[in-house]
Specification:
The chain has 316 residues and is α/β, with parallel strands linked by helices. Helix content is 32%, strand content 25%. It is built from eleven helices and 14 strands. The strands form three sheets. The chain has an eight-stranded mixed sheet, with helices on both faces.
Length: 316
């Protein structure tokens, strides 16, 4: 029997090296690293891991190095939560990518990402026979958007909803250059920094009214739902006719914001899989689940350690 996945996540799988510091360095400065931790990461991979941990049948597609140490760690960590790895592609020429993350006591971070093999995922690597057996296709954070466009085309042709959480590697390419991708997705999830960059807005000027005003451009491309995560304010849910700001989870202890957006996406997907319609009240509940999963994530070190279990979501 062919397995039908709840979601297939496509994008980067990297290894994160997380350095804990008292403060971030200034120019020509040096700071002491009190602890250095090696964790599996990559935005799409984090979301895949979180989706599986909260009980969704999940597969991952991305490219890693062939038989290298980082790649083996990624596969083993996926297997811990039963993420299907049979669709992963392997590069003989490039090694598995990595990200270097400096994290201060306030939970603020600086990330330097080397995509490695991940950025060499090709559109030819996206096979219709693999992608049609899923309820949702989720795309996140690759500089090369050609495989994402191919995956979105396959999804559209088979009436599979497409969710995009682009990340800065895509957003930095500019609205004009990513328009072909945006035209093919159904739900767009952006951080406040991504939204501000996409529309060349000063971060301090970004507010809910301005987001509603600018989002008409995105709705005109055919996007049905836009969600902008706004940190301590929560998440702004937009359709072409309605908008609502949904508050975040109240935190007892903020440790690390790494992976908060990836965790939010997993929570939203969890809700959307159960009821794949675009009625505003259903979307609101999905965003609330996203806020809950993200809120738990950032109370632990790393993008995956704080992800709740399915049992924690029984009240949604």
């Amino acid at each position: 029997m062919i397995e039908i996945f709840d979601v297939i996540c496509i994008g980067a799988a990297l290894v994160d090296m997380v350095a804990q510091v008292v403060r971030h360095p200034a120019d020509d400065d040096e700071v002491f690293v009190s602890n250095l931790t090696l964790l599996s990461g990559g935005a799409a991979a984090n979301t895949a891991y979180a989706c599986a941990k909260i009980g969704l049948s999940t597969a991952f597609i991305g490219k890693i190095g062939s038989q290298d140490t980082f790649g083996n760690k990624i596969i083993n960590d996926f297997k811990e939560v039963n993420v299907a790895t049979e669709f992963i592609k392997y590069s003989e020429h490039y090694r598995t990518g990595s990200a270097y993350i400096a994290l201060n006591k306030k939970g603020d971070r600086r990330i330097y990402a080397h995509s490695g093999a991940a950025n060499y995922l090709l559109k030819e690597d996206l096979l219709e026979k693999e992608l049609i057996n899923t309820k949702i296709i989720f795309l996140s954070s690759l500089k090369n958007i050609e495989p994402f466009i191919e995956a979105a085309n396959i999804g559209r042709n088979n009436k599979i909803p497409i969710i995009l959480n682009p990340g800065m590697l895509i957003i930095d390419q500019g609205l004009k250059n990513i328009k072909k991708l945006l035209e093919k997705i159904d739900i767009l999830i952006l951080s406040q920094n991504e939204y501000a960059t996409l529309f060349n807005i000063e971060g301090s000027d970004l507010n809910e009214d301005l987001i509603q005003e600018k989002s008409s451009t995105l709705f005109n491309l055919g996007i049905k739902v836009i969600i902008t995560t706004l940190g301590k304010k929560g998440a702004l849910l937009l359709t072409s006719s309605r908008a609502e700001l949904l508050p975040p989870l109240k935190l007892s202890n903020l440790i690390d914001t790494t992976g908060a957006g990836d965790a939010f996406s997993a929570g939203f997907i969890y809700g959307f899989v159960r009821n794949k319609n675009l009625k505003f009240e259903h979307l609101k509940n999905n965003v609330k689940i996203g806020n809950f999963v993200a809120g738990n994530c950032i109370q632990e070190l790393g993008a995956r350690n704080g992800i709740p279990s399915r049992e924690d979501l029984i009240f949604f």
